[in-house]
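queue> pop job 88
queue> type: inverse folding (structure -> sequence)
queue> payload:
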């Protein structure tokens, strides 16, 4: 696979926006059910670009703190809607992962094809930026979940159909399978080889979108999500029914 050219990652300007809004939500300054400041207001307050504000809102949405409502704005949720608290056991989490992946296959395969047809230069740049942030986080040993979600959300935005974005925002944190599983089995899905395999799949999707090849983009996304299904199905089979995994190394190999 050819290497995808991408600009050097920019400083994480979104973190300041994320941390500030998260603190306001935690303190009650932004109350449950209340509306976040508009995009224009946030740009003015923090002195950042529209892309940075959108990234910050996407992360808060992925964390289950806010939800975008088409035509109305972004609102603070009463409580996280990712359902993590209802899934204390690994098999339960894996069932949720497989259910979400089934929905994502119905939505994101076509989204990738539409992005290849409709994306603007600015939208392609946002996809590339998220891809490169994943690389940077991987290299520095930082969690890659936020960059992963940003990558898939940027593709949804590149369809220029707001409902694709809305679906991912509703799924939120559940969009990224390892965010569910890592809490119960962090050693299984956070290894560098596992994440490098996933990033190679992302590269294939990005390359197809950049070449404006809808069929190839759909196939690359289908492969990515199908591989995720396979990995988590294997993990589920190994953990369900009181079946134990012999060693962490064995499972890591299985998931690679």
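queue> result:
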């Amino acid at each position: 696979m050819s290497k995808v050219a991408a600009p050097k990652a920019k400083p994480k300007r979104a973190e300041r926006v994320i941390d500030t809004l998260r603190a306001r939500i935690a303190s009650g300054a932004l109350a449950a059910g209340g509306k976040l400041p508009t995009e224009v207001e946030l740009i003015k307050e923090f002195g950042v670009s529209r892309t940075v504000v959108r990234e910050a809102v996407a992360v808060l949405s992925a964390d289950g703190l806010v939800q975008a409502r088409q035509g109305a704005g972004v609102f603070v949720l009463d409580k996280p809607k990712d359902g993590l608290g209802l899934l204390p056991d690994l098999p339960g989490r894996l069932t949720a992962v497989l259910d979400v992946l089934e929905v994502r296959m119905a939505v994101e395969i076509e989204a990738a094809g539409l992005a290849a047809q409709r994306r603007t230069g600015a939208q392609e740049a946002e996809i590339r930026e998220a891809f490169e942030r994943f690389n940077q986080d991987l290299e520095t040993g930082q969690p890659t979940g936020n960059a992963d979600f940003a990558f898939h959300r940027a593709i949804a935005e590149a369809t220029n159909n707001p409902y694709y974005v809305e679906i991912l925002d509703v799924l939120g944190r559940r969009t990224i399978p390892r965010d569910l599983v890592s809490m119960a089995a962090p050693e299984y899905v956070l290894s560098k080889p596992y994440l490098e395999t996933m990033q190679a799949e992302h590269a294939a999707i990005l390359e197809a979108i950049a070449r404006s090849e809808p069929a190839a983009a759909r196939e690359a996304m289908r492969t990515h999500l199908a591989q995720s299904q396979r990995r988590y199905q294997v993990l589920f089979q190994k953990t369900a029914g009181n079946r134990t995994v012999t060693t962490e190394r064995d499972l890591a190999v299985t998931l690679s």
